[in-house]
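Worked example 3 (structure in, sequence out).
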């Protein structure tokens, strides 16, 4: 199978987004990469939880502040303890389907470097999920020689690859949630370099979205934006499908988009021939939930990218959708305060 990273048509930045580790609470490696990438386009600073912020100053004297974020963290595992058999017991963060995790390659990130292993999953007699890593160690003493300790993060080591026709630009990889969003941030930074925005743009990589959107609230409180756009992955479900453009969340567990905002967003996409989709959820949420209630309330719109097999080691998504998201967001930003004014009572 042809390896994704060897394909000339694919940006190396996307490959790095998909393969650099950074599960919730352990975002250091991916934060460093995003910091280095975005530093080419604006002023870099951080909130106190470790979210990275890139400010791109607008060109006009009177400006509003746009907050555009994607979360750095991914689902993953944390080492819990070492079993007497030499297997390494883990706690899952976000991987709820144990069956899809079975027999998948993983890396344990220790203070001494990474250790390769294979994930083994099962159910105990009470139907509780068991996640263990096999590093071919028969005794706990052998495991300890690798420097593996409780609290060490674990991530899937699968390589990204194309599926179907490469012309469709559909990939299979761990971490599409939300590394597609991070890639979109990089594309936006490049776009704003070529066509400078009139308003101030804050591109934000947030920490700990998968465990409650913590970095979203702290970074939004720090920036105090006028309006926010949240980039994330969503499920191919119901009317939503990959390769059909950005997905606007009309309702989820943390917010409801006003009808007049919905109509404006759909009409804007139609008039500019940008494919657009909508979704309605009663469960689940994105960073939009925390940003929306920061300070005295921030007008917030989730603009998502559809994926299959979300929260699994083999997620599937479209790079064409990423480019459509970037095109749509640039269009929204160009409208200035027109969208913001619609949120006012």
């Amino acid at each position: 199978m042809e390896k994704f990273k060897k394909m000339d048509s694919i940006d190396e930045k996307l490959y790095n987004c998909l393969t650099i580790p950074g599960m919730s609470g352990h975002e250091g490696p991916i934060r460093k990469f995003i910091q280095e990438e975005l530093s080419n386009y604006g002023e870099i600073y951080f909130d106190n939880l470790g979210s990275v912020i890139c400010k791109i100053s607008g060109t006009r004297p009177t400006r509003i502040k746009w907050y555009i974020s994607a979360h750095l963290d991914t689902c993953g595992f944390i080492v819990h303890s070492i079993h007497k058999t030499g297997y390494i017991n883990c706690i899952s963060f976000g991987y709820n389907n144990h069956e899809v995790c079975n027999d998948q390659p993983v890396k344990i990130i220790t203070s001494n470097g990474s250790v390769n292993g294979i994930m083994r999953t099962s159910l105990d007699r009470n139907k509780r999920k068991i996640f263990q890593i096999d590093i071919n160690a028969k005794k706990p003493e052998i495991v300890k020689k690798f420097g593996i300790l409780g609290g060490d993060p674990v991530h899937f080591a699968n390589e990204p690859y194309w599926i179907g026709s490469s012309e469709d630009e559909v990939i299979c990889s761990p971490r599409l949630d939300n590394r597609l969003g991070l890639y979109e941030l990089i594309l936006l930074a490049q776009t704003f370099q070529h066509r400078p925005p009139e308003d101030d743009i804050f591109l934000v990589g947030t920490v700990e979205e998968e465990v409650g959107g913590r970095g979203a609230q702290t970074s939004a409180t720090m920036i105090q934006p006028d309006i926010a756009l949240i980039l994330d992955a969503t499920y191919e479900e119901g009317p939503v499908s990959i390769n059909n453009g950005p997905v606007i969340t009309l309702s989820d567990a943390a917010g409801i988009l006003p009808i007049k905002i919905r109509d404006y967003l759909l009409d804007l996409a139609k008039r500019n021939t940008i494919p657009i989709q909508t979704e309605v959820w009663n469960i689940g949420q994105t960073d939009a939930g925390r940003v929306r209630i920061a300070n005295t309330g921030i007008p917030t719109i989730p603009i998502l990218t559809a994926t299959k097999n979300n929260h699994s080691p083999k997620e599937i998504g479209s790079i064409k959708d990423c480019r459509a998201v970037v095109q749509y967001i640039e269009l929204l930003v160009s409208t200035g305060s027109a969208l913001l004014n619609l949120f006012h009572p």
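Notes: The first helix runs from residue 12 to 19. The mean pLDDT is 94.
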